[in-house]
Design a protein that fits this description.
The protein is 50% helix and 4% strand. It contains 14 helices and three strands.
């Protein structure tokens, strides 16, 4: 497992924040995406606090607010009310949704808990009573079975990377992979009908490949074997025009392209919506129980998986309509 050490940069980042980010990476084993996300949220908070407390010119560009001068004494004077002022700013000035604000709360709670329990910089944790914004549960957006088939059929076989693109869509729709998981697939991690991936939080899990996936991979390998690939990326399954491991932005663009060619809404459906589609189709047509689905998707908490039980609403409607008194 690789850990990314955050090096000191006194021109940009406070030392306590650097310490915390390294703690997340090395001790807690958080992914680089998580660490980067926490850095963004806490940096935003510090900039707001300096502006809020009048410690920088009012007309300064928000992104130009310097936070490298933040020391322990500054941190010790941060109160619960400051966090609510920040969340109000995030909602009203930056149009952050409840979900985005909840993400900020999670980052701040983690940071100040570290300062209190690990670094012992503060004598009390000001975020201990900080509440998380209520997030309304939404049913996942997903493709129907027919729409999924249309998406697969939209891949033009004349395109030079058609087998790669078809394989990518097939794995999304059959395995429910996250975008980052798909991009980082290594050939050496494919053993017969199993694929080992590093998922969210640097956790390893096994993905089972059905016949459609195995066939798509096999056909794509014929195309891949003719490609020029940089030595350091020889084990990456999906290769881009740059002769290296395909990146997330490239996959997002190609998914949008085929979504459009299938006659679907390009703004509505993303790679993550294809993950929702795989989960919904497995639950709806495969009689997969919620615990098994949780393992397939790599969810840490089963409450995350329970959003897919929405398909039971259709069964309930059918049950009511089948009542013999329904005339």
């Amino acid at each position: 497992m690789r850990y990314d050490i955050v090096t000191s940069n006194s021109d940009v980042t406070p030392e306590r924040l650097i310490e915390f980010l390294n703690y997340l990476s090395v001790i807690r084993g958080k992914s680089s995406n998580t660490v980067a996300g926490y850095k963004i949220e806490i940096t935003l908070f510090f900039r707001f606090i300096k502006l809020y407390k009048g410690l920088c010119p009012k007309n300064i560009q928000f992104e130009d607010i310097i936070i490298n001068d933040i020391q322990d004494d500054f941190i010790k004077h941060i109160k619960l009310a400051d966090f609510y002022a920040f969340l109000s700013f995030a909602e009203k000035q930056r149009n952050n949704s409840a979900y985005a604000r909840a993400r900020k709360v999670a980052a701040l709670k983690s940071f100040f808990k570290y300062l209190y329990t690990r670094a012992k910089v503060i004598n009390e944790n000001p975020t201990s009573d900080l509440e998380t914004p209520k997030i309304n549960k939404r049913n996942p957006v997903y493709l129907t079975l027919d729409e999924s088939k249309n998406l697969l059929n939209s891949v033009d076989g004349t395109y030079k990377h058609s087998k790669r693109d078809f394989c990518i869509i097939t794995l999304f729709l059959n395995c429910g992979l996250r975008l980052s998981e798909l991009c980082s697939i290594q050939i050496s991690k494919i053993k017969e009908d199993t694929l080992t991936i590093i998922g969210k939080g640097n956790k390893e899990r096994t993905v089972y490949l059905n016949k459609s996936c195995l066939r798509a991979i096999s056909q794509y390998m014929d195309e891949r074997n003719l490609m020029e690939i940089l030595t350091t990326h020889k084990d990456s399954l999906f290769i881009s025009e740059r002769k290296c491991e395909i990146n997330k932005r490239t996959v997002e663009r190609l998914i949008k392209k085929y979504i459009g060619e299938a006659g679907l809404d390009k703004e509505k459906y993303t790679p993550h919506k294809l993950r929702h589609t795989a989960a919904t189709l497995m639950y709806k047509y495969g009689n997969v129980d919620i615990i098994s689905l949780q393992k397939i998707l790599g969810h840490e908490n089963i409450s995350t998986t329970q959003i897919y039980t929405h398909v039971d609403d259709e069964k309930l409607r059918e049950a009511v309509n089948s009542n013999p008194l329904n005339e």
